Amino acid sequence: MRRIFAWAVLLFLMAPMLAVVPLSFSGSEVLRFPPEGFSWRWYVAFFASDRWLLASRNSLIVASAVAVVATLLGTLAALGLHLARFRGRGLILALLAMPIVTPSIVTAAAVFFAFSVVGLTGSLVGLVLAHTVIAVPFVVIAVLASVQGFDPVLLRAAAGLGASPAAAFRRVMLPLIAPGVATGAVFAFATSFDEFIITLFIAGPGQFTLPRQMYASVREFLDPTICAAAVLLFLCSLVLLLLSEAARGRR
Amino acid sequence: MARRHNRLAALLLAPLLLLLCGSFFIPVARILVTAVADPELSEALPRTAALLRGWDGQGPPPEPVFVAIGEELAAALRDRRIGRVAQRLNFEQSGMRSLLLRTARAGVTSRAALVALDARWGAPETWTLLRGAAGPATGLYLLRALDLVRSPDGAIQPVPKDDALYRTLFLRTLWIALVVTAICVVLAYPVAAVLAGLPPRWSRIGMLLVLVPFWTSVLVRTTAWFVLLQREGPLNAALVALGLVDQPVQLIGTRFAVVLAMVHVLLPFAILPAYSVMKRIDPALMRAAASLGAPGWWRFLAIHLPLSLPGVAAGAAFVFLLSAGYFITPALLGGPQDQMVASFIAFFMNQTVNWGMASALACLLLAMAGAVLALARGLLPGVLSGRFRA
Amino acid sequence: MRRLGLAAVMIALAFGASARDLTVVAGGGPLQDHMRRTLFQPFAAANGIAVADTAYDYNVGPIRAMVRAGNVTWDVVLVEAPDLVQGCDDGMFERIDWSVVDRQKFLPGGTSECGAGAIGWGVSVFYDNHRHANGPASFAEFWDVARFPGRRAMRRGARMTMEIALLSDGVAMADVYPLLATPEGQRRAFARLDQLRPSLMFWSGGQQPIELINAGEVDYAFGFVGRTANAIRAGAPLALRWETLLYTYDFWAVVRGSEHTAMAMRLIESLTDEAPLLALSAAWPVNPVTASVARNPALLAANPLMMSNHVDGALRMDTEFWLEHGSDLEQRFTAWLNR
User: Where does it live in the cell (chain A) (predicted)?
Assistant: First the structure.
């Protein structure tokens, strides 16, 4: 009984995405179920649309930049936290987690006001910074989880054997934390790729990302192209999920 | 040695902390300031503001105040700085905008001339209003966000019934967030328990069914619901086919649609931490209890529930926090009576460009979230790591 | 890692772009595509410069932010009348240089200190004439659920809604705004809205009223005439009533602090000139605020669905009224909606 209930809930979790797939191959303009006919036309329309392509390009650029910046800073910070023996360690960890527990509309408002004063709204740098803020805690946590149990003595041992600190880091530390770093990077990418509210406020008029374009399409012009876009984005998420699973598998 | 470690640690942490300060902590602290800051009058009419701050508020203000405001209004109009102060005062009291602009255009600079131009310049309420706006701080926005106003004599009172809005809004936000959280917990608990008890192969498949939607963009999932809930969409088709309704019913624009989609979007956040905690419950404990003759419900209450509670609570707190600030789902699937605080913050930020009001609402939302966070403190780290151990 | 950092810097540089082209910002969509071809590009070619154009959603928050930060990246913007006037008082927009832009060529009310009239737009009642051969031809009839049973769609907002509530109650056009400025007038408007409330649905995006009619969710809708006219031209069986028209103008404005101010003024003069506007109107029947185009007999005769044919006797929305009472009425309206 409990099992049937559990599997029913899991089905509920999957159902909406699965239901959109047939609609995206609809032969007609209206979103009616069951869809009439079969065609690729909405996928063709997606790839022929400047707006969707521009949005895809922007999303990829922003998410890649966020993945790079967040992974870099997050990894360093996680290593710092791992080494730290001072009292404020717990506080810093809590501070680093703040951006994910703050309601995103509050973050969006705060960042919008602050960035508009210094002229960072509507710029790529501003968007990457804002996304990094909400993406970086995941990197820190992922890397921290992977260094847990690592003994700094190993580093000293390597140094004692004549390795330079950089070499010691590369040879001893990096292989150990690599899966955590990779997981964090994928998470950071996905977080930025999915981010909507902050983007809505601080992105410039030309900076349409995929979520923003999707929102605009639902509000303005509903046709099956949006289903095609949803399916394509869904496939992207699947790839990201597989990547993160692969990264974890290496641990 | 520890000292050297600490220095290195500080160095490694510094870049991220700097970035977070600049792009998160300072901005969030600033909205607390923006919610109570009242810079418009003193920026546009500095002399008037200074004189008003020194005025005791009794009777009509002295002649120099009239001279100052007359001159400064004309100058502000000329230099095109009058808009913000006009908007600020008009927000508190409709009609102030035209009064200021008319006076500025007339360019009159004496008490007699101002009163002759508009009798409101002779009324004490006008001056009380101006004095209240002379800065540097105001409670106007926070009070408004609680459906309160300050009457001319300084007493705090509720706004007229027809204008009351925000208390309903906060209660609704709280209510929707609680309902969504409750449903998520009720659905997540058995799912997590079943998954944790399955043989590894099946549990992996089950987890995949949680992780796939979890990784799918929120907008994609909300859009999917938008499509499914159309009058001619699959859900309506199913309802008609099952004979539950005679003809398609309106689903978009209802509270049902909002709650349904929010539960769908947030459910993984409740399942994952609960699962990661339950996974760590040693099955031997349950077996031992069973061998001692404890009945099923007792084993559940005495062992499983207390041990799994931290994960469940963490998930619930997370779901609550996320849903309290929700914007997309109510915006796309809800009707006017389903909008939450977030959509009003967005409205004041983007459309009327009233930063004070947006900040005040954001502060109250933050306070609400903070209160919940305080309740769940200590349990939260579990949710964060839960996301990875899943 | 270092290579990755370098890549990030390069991406940032690539995005940061170099010297800025003269940038026009409008509402996007097919209209802007036509504007690009008939208005922007000919000007660029004639002056030997590049003109970039981009779309925004009529939210002036970003313009305010860029002026405040002294980081102006837009030059000429299409803005709504209340935003224009408010922004002009605020120093968000440059004053129009009337020695460059010919002030005489506009319709009455088609210019203001910081703006030159661009295009007119309006809202009116429409319905599916396959389902309803006859529909409401006045707001009194729009409110008359006995004669015209069925659901109605209206804009989710006070602006345009308060006016028609009073019009439906027999208030004369000239009295609408003075009355709406009084507490009694506002009460009267809300009382009328209360009466219609059981039959009301609200839209927020401009395309929604048409979708609501198409999907059969509502029987009668009050929505943007331009979109409805386009749907009719595309073959939709819609009846658009002109007796219930409310209209206003959008304006071209120059963002203050633009490095291209002089060129921007010349662009505005060109954007509002007869020849390019006739070319635009031939492709996409907008409602120019330039008098010679708005009253061009051939153009009007060729486009019966052009709003310019129908503005005589329609209510022009009062910009100053909404600046003065907007924040109050919007709040009261939202409070009403939420009751």
Answer: Cell inner membrane; Cell membrane
Q: Sketch out chain C's domains with CATH numbers.
A: 2-120+248-309 (3.40.190.10), 121-247+314-337 (3.40.190.10)
Domain with B313 in it: what CATH number?
1.10.3720.10
**Within an 8 Å CB–CB cutoff, is residue A221 touching chain B?**
no
Distance from CA of B286 to the nearest CA of A (A): 18
Token output for B191? 């799912």
Whether residue B147 is contained in a domain is answered as no
Q: List pLDDT tens digits, range B164-219.
A: 899 999 999 999 999 999 999 999 999 999 998 888 888 888 888 999 998 888 88
Residues B115 and B174 in one domain: no
Say yes or no: B197 contacts chain A, CB-CB below 8 A.
no
Q: Which residue of A has its CA nearest to B343?
A: A105
Q: What is the mean pLDDT of residues B7-28?
A: 91
Question: Is residue A120 domain-resident?
Answer: yes
Output the six-digit token pair for A242: 């597989």
Residue B366 resides in a domain:
yes
What integer best gives the mean pLDDT of chain A?
86
Would you give the DSSP letter of residue B61? P
Question: What are C203's strand-pairing partners?
Answer: C155
| B104 shares its domain with B188 | no
CA distance A180 to A110: 30
What domain range is A145 assigned to? Answer: 58-207
Beta strands in chain C (DSSP E): 22-26, 51-55, 76-80, 111-112, 115-128, 152-155, 200-203, 220-224, 238-240, 246-254, 315-316
Give yes or no for residue B29 having a pLDDT over 80.
Answer: yes
Identify the pLDDT of residue C8: 46
Task: Report the CATH number that the domain containing residue A94 is assigned in CATH.
Answer: 1.10.3720.10
Q: Cβ–Cβ contacts within 10 Å for residue A40, how many?
A: 12
- Segments forming the whole domain that contains residue B83: 40-136
C65 with A116: Cβ contact below 8 A: yes
CA distances to C206, C227, C295, C311 from C306, rounded to whole Å, are 18, 11, 11, 10
Contact A113 B342 (CB under 8 A): no
Q: Are C323 and C86 in contact (CB under 8 A)?
A: yes
Inside any domain, residue B376: yes
The reported pLDDT for the residue numbered A100 is 85
Q: How far apart are CA C64 and CA A68, in angstroms?
A: 32
Q: What is the count of structural domains for chain A?
A: 1
Q: What is the pTM of this model?
A: 0.87
Note the pLDDT tens digit of each residue in A108-143.
999 998 998 887 888 899 999 999 999 999 999 889
Which pLDDT belongs to residue A37? 80
In a mutational test of the A interface, the residue from C6, C15, C21 whose CB has the highest number of chain A CBs within 10 Å is C15
Q: Is residue A94 part of a domain?
A: yes
- Which of A69, A72, A121 is facing C62, going by the closest CB pair? A121
**Does A1 reside within a domain?**
no
Same domain for B114 and B188, yes or no, is no
Chain C neighbors of A213, CB-CB under 8 A = none
Distance CA A213, CA A55 (A): 7
Provide the domain count of chain B: 2
Q: Are residues B280 and B211 in the same domain?
A: yes
Residue C33: pLDDT band with limits 50, 70, 90: confident
DSSP per position, C162-177 = HHHHHHHTT--GGGHH
pLDDT at B266 over 90: yes
- Domain boundary residue, one of B120, B136, B152: B136
Confidence band, pLDDT 50/70/90 cuts, at residue B236: confident
* A243 neighbors C91 (Cβ within 8 angstroms): no
State residue C88's pLDDT score. Answer: 92
Assess if residue A215 is contained within a domain.
no
Residues 198-227 of A with CB under 8 A from C: 201, 204-206, 216, 219-222
Identify whether B125 is part of a domain: yes
Q: Is the ipTM of this complex over 0.85?
A: yes
Domain boundary among B118, B136, B154: B136
